[in-house]
Design brief:
Helix content is 60%, strand content 21%. The chain is α+β, with helices and mostly antiparallel strands. It has two domains: 285 residues, Outer membrane efflux proteins (OEP); 112 residues, no CATH class. The protein is elongated, with a radius of gyration of 40 Å. The chain starts with a helix and ends in a 7-residue tail after the last strand.
Length: 490
């Protein structure tokens, strides 16, 4: 192969390799790209995902309580070989060797009924007794029995849980979306921290270059005797301050870069370069729509209802645990005994068990009444707190809408001021070089230029922070006119 051709391929490979390394070390990101990465791979997003899964399985655990429960229990084997005190036929007792096995297996199907706080069950059990000393084998059991356990005049926790737990689960679904939108707000703040640091470095570099150029020009004019020594010294001090400002801006840049990469989850080495957001989204934001969507989508509104029900539940529980407390237990089935296992299912006999246990407090020195009054006072306190929380909720949304509109107008003002300040500085620099103004006027123009640039970046930061905060407070995308959701049903 031609050596020149090989050399050409080698050069192309090196150029391609270096371009890849450069692309890996320095990446350019927009605000939306950085936020997307943060939602996908940041530690905060992974924590939100884990919390969502945890709450989902908690809800699944709650729902399983109201499904039919099938269980198998028993003791198999239950062997006992010892010397025991056994009563004889004449009524006396004697210590005799005992070698027995007493095993039992029980199969049960049960169902909870939340509306009435009832538990129904179907049971089937088998017991086997072995006496190894006499080679005796006996079977007993219940081929089938039906039962009911019904608390009377008691607090029905099952009914209240069916009201509260679904609300708690809805909270977790909405909380996951809010967590991701909260990540957007934080990422936006860190994005503009780094962007402002980048702009500050650029400003410092340009100022140092301009001040150094002006200083060299002033040196020539000083040698010609057209400017005083104090003006030359002031320019030299300005150059030194510019170097110091550049060093501080570079340090701030490294710190902001590390904070953003750490939060977002970018692990590639080197610094990242950010693009200044260009177009500002233009869409109407109506206070009424914002409030209605916030009430529909936010977890706080669901939490208000849950907290109100929890207060009512505490009162119901305090009242349900006072006065007469009783339990009705009934069981009907078939029972039998036999010397072999199949015999249990031949002509079994009926059996019925009905019992009512009760407890009635006679003297408790006002303890139960105090519990009810305490629960009622707590419920009233919860209602007052919820009223204030709902007012604060509405006020927060209204305030954010107003602030968003104001900041959108502020961007236009600061952008125009930035352009004017830059043009004024350019004119002042030319006039200084022509000897028409002094160093003081030039420094003032430079400071106003820098302040105007930073004010413009800060107005962008405030706007985008308000934009993503509005999304978080309403969970509504006003650009697309649709609710925001990241949750996918399991």
């Amino acid at each position: 192969m031609n050596k020149n051709l090989v050399l050409l391929y080698a050069c192309l490979f090196l150029l391609f390799f270096q371009s890849n390394l450069l692309a890996q070390s320095t990446g350019q990101y927009t605000l939306k790209e950085i936020i997307r990465i943060a939602r996908e791979q940041s530690i905060s997003s992974k924590r939100a995902e884990t919390t969502k899964e945890n709450r989902y399985w908690q809800y699944r655990t709650f729902r399983s309580v109201y499904q039919p429960q099938l269980s198998l229990d028993g003791t198999l084997p239950n062997f006992n070989r010892t010397v025991d005190n056994v009563q004889q036929n004449d009524g006396s007792f004697d210590f005799v060797p005992v070698s027995i096995n007493n095993s039992i297996v029980n199969l049960r199907l049960s169902q909870a009924v939340a509306a009435t706080n009832t538990r129904l069950f179907i049971n089937s059990s088998v017991r086997r007794f072995d006496n190894f000393a006499t080679d005796q084998v006996l079977y007993s059991g219940n081929p089938m029995e039906l039962g009911i356990l019904q608390p009377l005049f008691q607090f029905n926790r099952l009914k209240w849980d069916t009201k509260i737990e679904p609300l708690r689960y809805q909270e977790s679904v909405k909380a996951y979306t809010e967590d991701l939108e909260r990540i957007s707000v934080t990422t936006s703040e860190l994005f503009f921290d780094l962007l402002l640091a980048q702009i500050s470095v650029e400003i410092s570099e340009k100022n140092l270059l301009n001040n150094d150029t002006i200083y060299k020009i002033a040196e020539g004019r000083y040698n010609l005797g057209t400017i005083a020594e104090n003006e030359l010294l002031q320019l030299e001090l300005t150059v030194m301050n510019s170097r110091q400002q550049l060093a501080q801006a570079s340090l701030d840049l490294e710190t902001s870069n590390l904070r953003l990469k750490t939060f977002v989850g970018i692990t590639t080495p080197g610094s990242i370069e950010l693009k200044l957001p260009g177009e500002i989204p233009d869409f109407p934001v109506d206070e009424t729509v914002a409030l209605s969507e916030a009430r529909r989508n936010r977890q706080e509104v669901t939490a208000f209802e849950r907290r109100r029900l929890e207060g009512e539940r505490e009162v119901a529980q305090a009242k349900g645990e006072t006065g007469l407390v009783a339990d009705l237990f009934a069981r009907f089935g078939l029972a039998n005994r036999s010397t072999d296992f199949p015999g249990l299912y031949r002509r079994p006999e009926d059996q019925q068990i009905v019992s009512i246990g009760f407890e009635i407090p006679i003297i408790d020195w006002g303890r139960q009444k105090s519990r009810v009054k305490t629960a009622e006072a707590n419920q009233q306190l919860i209602n007052y707190t919820l009223q204030q929380d709902e007012i604060n909720f509405d006020q927060e949304v209204f305030t954010q809408v107003k602030q968003f509109k104001m900041l959108k107008e502020q961007i236009l003002i600061t952008e125009k001021a930035d352009d004017i300040a830059q043009r004024r500085y350019d004119i002042s620099k030319n006039r200084f070089q022509n000897g028409k103004i002094g160093i003081t006027d030039l420094n003032i123009a430079m400071q106003e230029k820098d302040e105007a640039k930073r004010a413009y970046i800060l107005s962008l930061r405030n706007f985008w922070n308000a934009y993503y905060t509005l999304r978080r407070l309403t969970l509504y995308d006003f650009e697309r006119s649709s609710p925001i959701t990241y949750y996918v049903e399991e």
